[in-house]
Write a structure and sequence with these properties.
Blueprint lengths: L6 H10 L1 H21 L4 E10 L6 H4 L4 H6 L4 H4 L2 H10 L11 H8 E5 L5 E8 L2 H58 L2 H34 L4 H69 L6 E6 L12 H31 L4 H7 L1
Antiparallel strand pairs: 1-3, 1-4, 2-3
Length: about 375
């Protein structure tokens, strides 16, 4: 006949059969300890990357970071965890044999772990391998390549601006070269200084001719007043001939001065035009060159900048197997399993045999 559950009877049943629990725990602990000691040791090294704000960001606003912005930085996990980067690292450290059959995906899951620490700008890259030195080198290599990949992506984004700035700088350089060449040619062909000196000498000579002409005209008037003598007529004729000659030379000199003045004015205007173009070309070149230098200096820094904050150290203790944790888990499982087994045995015995409580047997005895 089925009897109601008695807790004291159940506890007494477990107490009497404690060797079963002890043996199960000892066996499970021994097996777990043996397996943990026999399993190959694996070491985990961790490298850290800090995600800094863009180079052009305001330093005052860099300290105000919203949770949304920090959450958006999780996208950089894909940089470090990309298949192409892992394949490159695996080939660099000879972890993949040419004819190997192991899939890259499963190999990556067993070696690489990338995570951004919550509410921080720190990206952690962990590598787990059987060689501690190799694990540290692998983690550092992935971290450095992640930084290079991010910088390369930023450079690609800035390439369009750089191409446009380089094109403008080349055009400005070509314009400056043409202006300098025109200025050199003008200096070689347009001798404005010598032409101006010749013009000044012609003006001075014209002043002297005009004075001589005035003196000659005064002589003509004087000879006309002297009368009709033979000598006076000869002197008057000579004076008039001199006046005519001086007038002719003065007219020729005036035409020469006019031509030289026009030529000097034309060449001066050309020189001023060439010098003005040279100044504008020089200013345009200086501006475009400075703009290009600024773009090259800030290239790759418009987006967030990654920097290896900690390359990690060579681990001294293995991360797996964890002997203490494995033994503790085995003991716990053995304890629970043995208690469950004894509970089922206790229940089955009460149902099939009509088990009487030990306390009742003691009272009858």
């Amino acid at each position: 006949m089925y009897q109601s559950f008695d807790a004291f009877e159940y506890v007494e049943y477990l107490r009497r059969r404690w060797p079963v629990i002890a043996v199960a725990c000892v066996v499970a602990g021994a097996l777990s300890l043996t397996a943990s000691l026999l399993l190959p040791k694996r070491y985990t090294a961790t490298a850290s990357i800090v995600i800094e704000p863009p180079g052009g960001a305001d330093a005052r606003s860099a300290t105000v970071v919203s949770p949304v912005y920090l959450e958006s930085l999780k996208t950089y996990e894909h940089f470090a965890a990309s298949d192409s980067l892992f394949v490159g690292a695996a080939e660099h450290f000879h972890l993949v044999s040419p004819g190997g059959s192991q899939a890259i995906e499963s190999l990556k899951r067993g070696i690489l772990k990338v995570s951004k620490i919550r509410d921080t700008k720190i990206l952690e890259i962990s590598a787990t391998l059987s060689d501690p030195k190799l694990a540290q080198g692998f983690a550092q290599y992935v971290a450095e390549e992640t930084v290079n990949m991010n910088r390369g992506a930023n450079l690609v984004a800035d390439r369009e601006f750089l191409d446009d700035a380089e094109k403008r700088a080349a055009e400005a350089q070509q314009r400056l070269d043409q202006a300098q060449k025109a200025q050199a040619n003008l200096t070689a062909t347009a001798l404005i200084g010598a032409l101006q000196a010749d013009l000044d000498a012609s003006v001075e000579l014209q002043t002297k001719l005009r004075q001589d002409l005035l003196d000659a005209e005064a002589n003509v008037a004087e000879y006309q007043q002297q009368g009709d003598g033979q000598f006076a007529r000869e002197q008057l004729q000579a004076a008039r001939a001199r006046v005519s000659l001086l007038e002719k030379r003065s007219q020729e000199l005036a035409r020469s001065i006019s031509e030289k003045s026009a030529l000097v004015a034309k060449r001066t205007a050309k020189r001023d035009e060439v010098l003005a173009e040279l100044r504008m070309a020089q200013a345009a070149y200086d501006s475009s060159a400075a703009h290009l230098r600024d773009l090259r200096g800030t290239a790759g820094t418009r987006g967030e900048r990654l920097r290896v904050m900690d390359p990690g150290i060579i681990p001294q203790r293995p991360s797996s197997p964890n002997v203490f944790l494995n033994v503790a888990a085995a003991l716990l499982v053995a304890l629970v399993a043995s208690i469950v087994y004894l509970s089922f045995a206790f229940s089955f015995r009460r149902r099939s045999v009509g088990f009487e409580p030990a306390v009742s047997r003691g009272m009858r005895g």
